[in-house]
Amino acid sequence: xxxxxxxxxxxxxxxxxxxxxxxxxxxxxxxxxxxxxxxxxxxxxxxxxxxxxxxxxxxxxxxxxxxxxxxxxxxxxxxxxxxxxxxxxxxxxxxxxxxxxxxxxxxxxxxxxxxxxxxxxxxxxxxxxxxxxxxxxxxxxxxxxxxxxxxxxxxxxxxxxxxxxxxxxxxxxxxxxxxxxxxxxxxxxxxxxxxxxxxxxxxxxxxxxxxxxxxxxxxxxxxxxxxxxxxxxxxxxxxxxxxxxxxxxxxxxxxxxxxxxxxxxxxxxxxxxxxxxxxxxxxxxxxxxxxxxxxxxxxxxxxxxxxxxxxxxxxxxxxxxxxxxxxxxxxxxxxxxxxxxxxxxxxxxxxxxxxxxxxxxxxxxxxxxxxxxxxxxxxxxxxxxxxxxxxxxxxxxxxxxxxxxxxxxxxxxxxxxxxxxxxxxxxxxxxxxxxxxxxxxxxxxxxxxxxxxxxxxxxxxxxxxxxxxxxxxxxxxxxxxxxxxxxxxxxxxxxxxxxxxxxxxxxxxxxxxxxxxxxxxxxxxxxxxxxxxxxxxxxxxxxxxxxxxxxxxxxxxxxxxxxxxxxxxxxxxxxxxxxxxxxxxxxxxxxxxxxxxxxxxxxxxxxxxx
Length: 610
Prior knowledge:
The chain is an alpha+beta fold. The protein has 14 helices and 26 strands. The chain has a 5-stranded antiparallel β-sheet with strand order 1-24-3-20-21, with no helix packed on it. Strands 8-7-12-13 form a 4-stranded antiparallel β-sheet, covered by helices on one side. A hairpin with a 2-residue loop joins strand 20 and strand 21. Helix 1 packs antiparallel against helix 7.
């Protein structure tokens, strides 16, 4: 609230501002008490919600312990040929298996029949070429490595010039990297010599020879997928991307793609990368299309594997796909292939390299004529880790709740008012609030009930397991000092012994289902108790999500009620302060009038006295 600026005491000489402030200080103590009570509620709400968050985390752990798969773990070790990765699930069976991988599942694939980039070709030169000091150098960049090529001075016909250039290129980059050639009309050509297609770029040298050789600075071998198809058609005159000035239309797996390359058409500047992106975005086509810079080919693969996968391409118009098309991908259909394994001598076909059989998950890596041996055994270490994690999470909840239940309460340390905080240092405020927040949930009945129920359930026996391991203590999990208020400790040797002796019995202890509570596993009982506790805490103080949604909890309602009382109190104090000021103002006015009358009377007396 905005308070008016007032000036008083001109007639009386009194410090009215201080007088009103002192009078209001007593009245403001009522408002301060409301603010302090609201702060206590907020702190209690935070403490409840903190425990509720721990309970939610523990709930997920308890849920996992209800599942047999959490404890009934198996490990799979494969020896011999490294043909696959194998993991064992809860449905696996102990024993040995033989595995032979005859074939891997494959995608349907269509790719360019040859390299898309054609030899880097220069302009035609004369029957002879004179090389001298002014035109004997140029630079070759091979996949980022640059070397200067210096041509021996002399007169060359095309054959001799090719021989000289090949010798100098082989010397610079080693043989088998770049092949130098020529066409029938005396055009020099540069291209990769092997199957790998590196980038070749020609650059001007100090005594530039490129112009004499028929090339320009920056001429390169390799298509640029990010250049427009028209630009590439102009560059590669010996193998144009013949989009023409009209339409390019084709289908992939029944999905039609259409592009207008006419002058001013919507796709006049369309790039090869753009077309490949359009193909990939079409989910119905179900393929992955890309330019493979290593092989210098376009590759179109089905996303699926197996005999049901296919890549069907139909050229409708233009010369991008189809026989003789720029991409060298014909109209035939390609199909995928199933994987084939022999498991214990039984031939099994799958449409993937990743699959599960009898609880064993396979990830095939390669084929082999040799058999691999898979040994499946119980993974007691996995069960041990799951139980240890369960106990750790249980102890976190127990310790947090007990910490609040037995925390010391300092009633002489109420929450600080804003005025009190201004008179203290940050460290003093911090220490004060530590004590003020302490013990706010001491002996809280909700928390006491939750922790008591959890502890009781953990000590009870599970009937009908058919095992000697029907209580936590029987597998080495017990409490110790009573001062720890129910914290559990694990005798690791006894737990491992129980897991090795009767894993099924230990699993039943936690996850057995039953018609009555006494036959239900500890995790099933505890899950219901934790759920109930979370509900009670949420009803009391809400949860973290209550910050976003409407908080209808008990404390949430009390805080809203306190907000209204504080608002009413602030309005009352403002009215009271205005009342005090009106009273002092009236006093000032009366004094002013009295002073005026006194002065008039004095003047009259002085006049009559004379």
